[in-house]
Amino acid sequence: MGKAKTSKRGNTSSGPYERPSKNNSAANNVFKFTKDLGQHILRNPGIAQAIVEKAVLKPTDVVLEVGPGTGNLTVQILNRARKVIAVEMDPRMAAEVTKRVQGKPEHKRLEVVLGDVIKQEPLPDFDVCISNTPYQISSPLVFKLLRLPTELHDLEIPSTLSVNAQFWAKISHVLKVGRANFRPPPQVDSSVVRIEPKTGSERPNISFEEGLLRICFNRRNKVLRSLFLGNKEVLKMVETNYRLYCATNDIPIDDGLVDDAGEDEEMEVDEDEKDAVMDVDGDDDLPSFFGAAKNPDEGTLTSKRGSLKKTRVAVLVKEKVRKVLEETELAESRSAKLHENDFLRLLAAFNAEVGVMELGETKPDDNTLL
Ligand SMILES: C[S@@+](CC[C@H](N)C(=O)[O-])C[C@H]1O[C@@H](n2cnc3c(N)ncnc32)[C@H](O)[C@@H]1O
């Protein structure tokens, strides 16, 4: 990947690392941005230009732009592509981007679709997708796009996502964009990445909606033993899946309560596992693992006066999880260091032991996955 040019001190031309201009666009100052919609406007025209240049568009390309906002990327794309279809959820932004090209020849080549891109079924036909994607929809958007047979998607997304997406796509880092280039500035810097869907035999024949990776990357620097065995929520969800698996496959289940004598959770949990238990408390960002519905009434791990009571199924499930981690020899590995083949092995082992894959189906409009 070629290195982007840096602008020299005092040079007023718009290079990619030019300091953001305060009066870059009147449109950027007209209304209050909505945090819930991830409205962080790219205010540096040099960066907008660099992103679009890196997409190496053909003059014949139809570009899908997700969340055009006030149109800072849109106008650059229109300079290089045949047509832009921009899907925008905020009517104020849709009006703003439309206004930006009004009375200009590009007007005819811009189609603004008002609505939630995740709910657009089907998506309009396009060659390339370019998006300064709000964090809230980056996962569902990427996986929605990866279901399509399109050749190339260019997306700006948080870089952690690329770890999940790399199962189904080749991901390359294009550009780092510091938070100061956005208005209002987000809490973290961003990365522009190119996502090219894998095709044919390169593409693994597994569902990408199951939540295994999300468990692993909930705490990417923790060992898997801690993430799976030290996290009651995870165990509970694996158990829910296992129960569903048994029910749908006519496997009898022994639900008797047992004292966990000889299996004192706190004694058994090591430092990593304890950390994970503490991490989980009050964490409302828990993934919907394996696509299973969370049902608090279904909990089988109960704590009374410090002593734990479990059902036999809960104990069995914990043993199964332990077996998976031991057999794959991944118990002491950290997600951040694993290769994608390791995740596939882990997935296969879980599938064989607790039947998660059959139960990994999810609703198409579920935004919370991965
Ligand atoms: C980070 S801003 C990017 C704006 C512009 N592209 C830029 O780079 O300056 C994200 C935009 O996506 C829009 N948006 C948020 N959620 C959306 C959704 N589900 N579907 C379509 N647009 C959405 C927001 O209203 C906002 O305009």
Automatic annotation (TrEMBL):
<dbReference type="GO" id="GO:0000179">
    <property type="term" value="F:rRNA (adenine-N6,N6-)-dimethyltransferase activity"/>
</dbReference>
<feature type="binding site">
    <location>
        <position position="67"/>
    </location>
    <ligand>
        <name>S-adenosyl-L-methionine</name>
    </ligand>
</feature>
<protein>
    <recommendedName>
        <fullName>rRNA adenine N(6)-methyltransferase</fullName>
        <ecNumber>2.1.1.-</ecNumber>
    </recommendedName>
</protein>
<dbReference type="GO" id="GO:0005730">
    <property type="term" value="C:nucleolus"/>
</dbReference>
<dbReference type="InterPro" id="IPR020598">
    <property type="entry name" value="rRNA_Ade_methylase_Trfase_N"/>
</dbReference>
<feature type="domain" description="Ribosomal RNA adenine methylase transferase N-terminal">
    <location>
        <begin position="47"/>
        <end position="199"/>
    </location>
</feature>
<feature type="binding site">
    <location>
        <position position="88"/>
    </location>
    <ligand>
        <name>S-adenosyl-L-methionine</name>
    </ligand>
</feature>
<dbReference type="InterPro" id="IPR020596">
    <property type="entry name" value="rRNA_Ade_Mease_Trfase_CS"/>
</dbReference>
<feature type="binding site">
    <location>
        <position position="116"/>
    </location>
    <ligand>
        <name>S-adenosyl-L-methionine</name>
    </ligand>
</feature>
<feature type="region of interest" description="Disordered">
    <location>
        <begin position="1"/>
        <end position="26"/>
    </location>
</feature>
<keyword id="KW-0949">S-adenosyl-L-methionine</keyword>
<feature type="binding site">
    <location>
        <position position="40"/>
    </location>
    <ligand>
        <name>S-adenosyl-L-methionine</name>
    </ligand>
</feature>
<dbReference type="GO" id="GO:0003723">
    <property type="term" value="F:RNA binding"/>
</dbReference>
<keyword id="KW-0808">Transferase</keyword>
<feature type="binding site">
    <location>
        <position position="132"/>
    </location>
    <ligand>
        <name>S-adenosyl-L-methionine</name>
    </ligand>
</feature>
<dbReference type="InterPro" id="IPR001737">
    <property type="entry name" value="KsgA/Erm"/>
</dbReference>
<keyword id="KW-0698">rRNA processing</keyword>
<keyword id="KW-0694">RNA-binding</keyword>
<dbReference type="InterPro" id="IPR029063">
    <property type="entry name" value="SAM-dependent_MTases_sf"/>
</dbReference>
<dbReference type="Pfam" id="PF00398">
    <property type="entry name" value="RrnaAD"/>
</dbReference>
<comment type="similarity">
    <text>Belongs to the class I-like SAM-binding methyltransferase superfamily. rRNA adenine N(6)-methyltransferase family.</text>
</comment>
<keyword id="KW-0489">Methyltransferase</keyword>
<feature type="binding site">
    <location>
        <position position="42"/>
    </location>
    <ligand>
        <name>S-adenosyl-L-methionine</name>
    </ligand>
</feature>
